[in-house]
Input
Amino acid sequence: MDLPLNQISERIRAAAADRTPLRIRGGGTKDFYGHSLQGELLDVRALRGIVSYEPSELVVTVRAGTPLAELQSALEEKGQHLAFEPPGFGAPDESGSKTTCGGMAAAGLAGPARASTGGVRDFVLGVTMLNGRAELLTFGGQVIKNVAGYDVSRLMVGALGTLGVLTEISLKVLPRAPAEATLSCEGLAQQTALDLLNRWGGQPLPLNASCWVCDDGAGAPGERLFVRLRGAAAAVEAACPRLVADVRARGGDVLRMDNAQAQPDWNACRDQTLPFFQAPAPELGLWRLSVPQTTPDLKLPFAPLVEWHGGLRWIWAPLSAMTQLREAAARVGGMATLFRAPQTIGTDAPQRFSPLGTALQQIHQRLKNEFDPAGIFNRGRMYAQW
Output
């Protein structure tokens, strides 16, 4: 092991012996996500660099502390990218976005293309990690068909560092699509937009991302649906007039945006810098409702932003609406997460994630006990029990 890894291992052994909580942290851009931050800081940014990259094999292995922007730059040079579009929250520093590849995997958050291309978990081929005994473990590998038995590498995605310290991640990458088009559709109510997205989802169209929002800002008021197409040039060009005709048949108006103009908007949607994501009031929190794509308008008393072809609904609402939102999501087979706590509460807001059932809670607890027997990693970040 190199020096930074040795130092981290020693920190883990000492913490496990004393049962001292450790707070695993890279760039800190997701400190807002999850429950309160507890424990001594364990900074993993020294674990930095691209270990291997085989563009012809569409596989890259990167150390956990590597800035996400550094990886994306290397992929861009070869005309490739991370198709799930991971967000890069937080203000950039002198080297670019502070978001690290380890934080990307641990949080498991994906951007606008998630519904069409898959999420972070779908692109993780393998991981190397340190468990609560400071043992260096490797799961998965560097090829797509590499799993025999439990797929532990994907288990680490979205675990928020509660099971161990990621040191390396192997990812599948994809070539950038040769053609792209974004349509801005005005005058479509939420249910009309959802109906169209469901209709298009059942057709052989290169539908890549969508975003519906009611924009009441100055200069561009009204309900808008943005649709992004990606794929072969012939497929994109053939699909555009079909979508335009469908929108106009529903009474909407359509504008094809210039790609140079559209890309910053999609980036802003991904990184939550659109006007919608600015808290309307300090007592409101940002709720993330994950539901089936075919779910109709939930008729909640809060204006949403809808992504993932209907599968993701963002809502600003107070903590007092928690039961209402979770019941509405549960009725359609979904769940509601308090993604950003109200400014008046901070990271200590209760019940950030939907409560687990008894069986799931037992499974989670057993996994936690196996990987982190002393309970030192990111204690209380996901659930108060661990």
Summary: Residues 115 and 308 are 5 Å apart (CA to CA). The chain has three domains: 3-175+367-371, 179-270, 279-348. The chain has a mean pLDDT of 92. The radius of gyration is 21 Å.
